[in-house]
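ARCHIVE CARD
Drawer: 12
Card no.: 0347
Subject: one protein chain, sequence and derived structure
Cross-reference: see card 0346
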Amino acid sequence: MANQTSSKNTSLLITLSSVFLIGSIAIISIIPCPSEPQFIFYKVVLALAIAGMASILPGFMLVKYKNFVSAGEALAVFVFVLTFNPALIANNPRCKGFFNLNIQFYGDSAKGIILKSGEVKVVVNGRTQIIPIQPDGKITLEDITYDILRKPILLTPQIEDYHPDQRTIILEDQASSIDLVLDPVVPEVKVEGIIFYRGKPLMPGIIVIDGQNSRTDEYGNFSQIVHSKEGSNMNFRFFYKGVPIFNSTEVVTVQKKRYI
């Protein structure tokens, strides 16, 4: 009868210890950076679990703590775990609460063009702010909490001559800086005019401006949208009956009137 009772007590002890141990693992997984009261509760649960397991094992352990506590066997294990204060949490940067993130903006994939003006709309954890770009091409997101990890940070750059497409950053771990390359906007200019060939309107004629074709009408008029800034250099080629009659690199202007 005594053996059955002892066996039942041992089984109950193992069960309770296992529950406490699983609970400890669950707590530290859900709250990796506990507050001081949470950490004390976690240590009590863990100490109970380990002491329960230790009470089943043979042997003896004696613990004295600051001349106030003297305990042996399972109680000694309980006291040891309860009074153990690891520095892992204190030294864990995630448990410090905040970090800063620098974002560097470039205007080309080679990262040779640093964008030094403009501003960026930033949404972090539902909070929106407008941050100006510094002369070194950076913005700084200050005091970001660690709960932003694996969550989206939304960036909408507002920089002249670059696409204002929204960018999404997801940090898997703490980072002090990241680089962001923006896509330049290729502007459109409508080039139109009249082409004269040997004193008469060029008809029918083909106008090729940097590889983009258009045709003249019966009066020599042409109109074409080109992807370039006004004032930049582009190649103009004119054809009459399939024969090239003019080839030149010129500055793009909105209006063209050419005599050949």
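Annotation on reverse: Helices lie at 2-30, 36-54, 73-83, 88-91. Confidence is low (pLDDT under 50) at residues 68-72, 254-260.
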